[in-house]
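We give this protein:

***
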Amino acid sequence: MSAPAPTSHSSSRDPRRTSTVPKRTSLLPRPSSIAIDPTALIAQHAQLTGTHPITIGPRAVLHPHSKIDSTGCVVMVGEGVVVFERARVGVADVEAQPALVRRSSGMSAGGRDSRARGDGVVLGRNVVVETGAVVQGAEVGEGSVVEVGAVVGRGAVVGKYCTISAASVVPPYTNLPDYTVVFSGSQKRIDKTLQQRPDILEAKMAVHKKQLDMFRQLVANNITKWTG
């Protein structure tokens, strides 16, 4: 006795084989407006999310898995800014802030600081935000560097040509003068070499410019995802 023939199923009933299955879309909120200079470089997997406007300036570079978050405020990324992998720029909900920042500001995990509502985050010209760093400050001045894993707390103002050393913290609503170096967690000093030697500062900025050119050769630009 022969075995019964297997029942055939129409491919139209199999959702894995039909073209009518809707394409999965991102669950991240899209900012109310995104203004991106055509010379900016936005790598694949970089994220621009939130509800407030985001502006990306000329020759700015957003590396893969970097995140610009305008959930809590407007975010402006200036000319020549570089945001590296897994770095986050912008103000999100308090629950999303690192615990260290919450402790520094005296906020509980479920609380909210009313002073931060409507604040903006501005990265000045040629600012560098390195891997894993978090910037929620109101402003980071021209040429400043936020090193690996460092945190700039909400509402803080960082002057020009400052260095926030790796894993250091700038507490919320702190004002740092130009050429400040934050090191060993939260200690501070003034970089008098950069302050008093314009030739060294010029050489530093020349290296930054070369890096911008190098990124354009090595990193594929996915800007059309956001401007198309």
Observations:
- Residues 28-227 form a domain with the UDP N-Acetylglucosamine Acyltransferase; domain 1 fold (CATH 2.160.10.10).
- The first strand starts at residue 34 and ends at 36.
